[in-house]
Specification:
heterodimer; A: mainly beta; 5-stranded mixed β-sheet; elongated; disordered N terminus; B: mainly beta; 4-stranded antiparallel β-sheet; 1 helix; 10% helix
C-alpha cells in the first residue's frame, strides 16, 4: 500500500482578498523528488531574481513579487491586452518535516523552483535488527 | 482499499479549466473562487501594441526555453507555437499538485497591420516573449501634398 504517499506535506492555500487586477496567483506544480525532498515550481513570468520575496514564517512559505512588464510608452496603444503585470502572491502551509534552513530557490525562464529538503528527523530510517 | 489515480501527466479537466480561465479573463473574478491566475495552460495570453513605426507582440511563456518556441509570420498572421516540457523522469515523480500543465500550444494572432517580417526581432526574457515587428512601408501613413 502506498498509504504514506497520500500524506500531503505541502498545502497550497488559495489567495484571498485583493481586487481583480491586483493580486495574481502563480500556478504551481508540487512534486516529491526521488531524494524525498518536495519541489515547488511556480510560474512567475516577467520576474527578475531580485524582485522576488520568499520567506518562511510560522510554518507558512510565502512567495511574493511585484511585476511590471516592459513598458513602451506614449506612441504605443494596446490593440489587444491579454495580460499585465501585478502583484504575485501565493502561500503554502508547510508541515514540520522540512529542514527550513536548507530551502533553496532558483529562477529560470519565468519559473521559480523551490526545493524543500526533508529534515533528518523526518526521513524514514531503516532499523537494523542486531542478532546474536 | 484501492486508490484510483489519473495517470500522471494527463489532466482530464485541462480543457475545462482553460475555458474557465478564459472566462475569468473576460468577466473578471466572478467565475473562479481563487484570485486571477498567472502562468500555465496551453493558451498563452498575448498583448498586441500598435506604434507609429512598429507593432509589438508580448506573449507569456513561462517555462518555455528558447529552443521550444517556434515563431512564424505569414502575411498579417503571427503564429506562436511551442511546447512546455515536463521535468525529466516525470513519470517517477509523485505529484501532489499539478496546475501548470504541459504539452504543445499554438496561438495565432492577426496583426492589425502589414509588417516587414525580415526585420522582425524576438526576445525571450523571464518567460515573456517580446516580438518587435517593424511595419512595412505600405502600412505606414503617407503625407500627400495638396497642390
Amino acid at each position: 500500500m502506498t498509504k504514506k504517499k497520500e500524506h500531503i506535506a505541502v498545502h497550497a492555500e488559495p489567495v484571498r482578498g485583493g481586487a481583480p487586477g491586483e493580486t495574481l496567483t502563480p500556478l504551481v506544480d508540487v512534486y516529491e523528488a526521488p531524494d524525498g525532498s518536495i519541489v515547488l515550481e511556480a510560474e512567475v513570468p516577467g520576474v527578475a531574481g531580485k524582485d522576488i520575496d520568499i520567506r518562511v514564517d510560522k510554518g507558512v512559505l510565502t512567495v511574493e513579487a511585484d511585476v511590471r512588464l516592459e513598458e513602451f510608452g506614449e506612441p504605443y496603444a494596446y490593440t489587444y491586452q491579454g495580460f499585465e503585470g501585478g502583484h504575485y502572491f501565493r502561500a503554502f502551509a508547510l508541515s514540520d518535516e522540512f529542514d527550513r534552513d536548507r530551502i533553496e530557490a532558483s529562477l529560470s525562464c519565468g519559473v521559480l523552483t523551490i526545493r524543500l529538503p526533508r529534515a533528518a528527523s523526518a526521513r524514514t530510517r531503516k532499523i537494523e535488527i542486531r542478532g546474536e | 482499499m484501492t486508490i484510483f489515480r489519473w495517470p500522471s501527466g494527463w489532466d482530464p479537466f485541462l480543457g475545462l479549466r482553460q475555458v474557465q480561465r478564459e472566462l475569468e479573463r473576460l468577466f473578471g473574478d466572478s467565475v473562479g473562487a481563487a484570485g486571477r491566475q498567472v502562468g500555465g495552460g496551453s493558451y498563452p495570453p498575448v498583448n498586441v501594441l500598435n506604434g507609429p513605426e512598429e507593432l509589438i507582440v508580448q506573449c507569456e511563456l513561462a517555462g518555455c526555453r528558447l529552443e521550444d518556441i517556434d515563431l512564424s509570420i505569414t502575411g498579417e498572421t503571427l503564429v506562436v507555437k511551442g511546447v512546455k516540457n515536463p521535468p525529466q523522469d516525470d513519470s517517477k515523480l509523485h505529484y501532489q499538485r499539478r496546475e501548470r500543465g504541459v504539452g504543445e500550444f499554438s496561438r495565432t494572432i492577426i496583426l492589425p497591420d502589414r509588417v516587414d517580417a525580415d526585420r522582425a526581432d524576438a526576445r525571450l526574457e523571464a518567460g515573456v516573449l517580446t516580438v518587435r515587428l517593424p511595419k512595412s512601408e505600405a502600412a505606414k501613413p503617407k503625407r500627400i501634398q495638396v497642390k
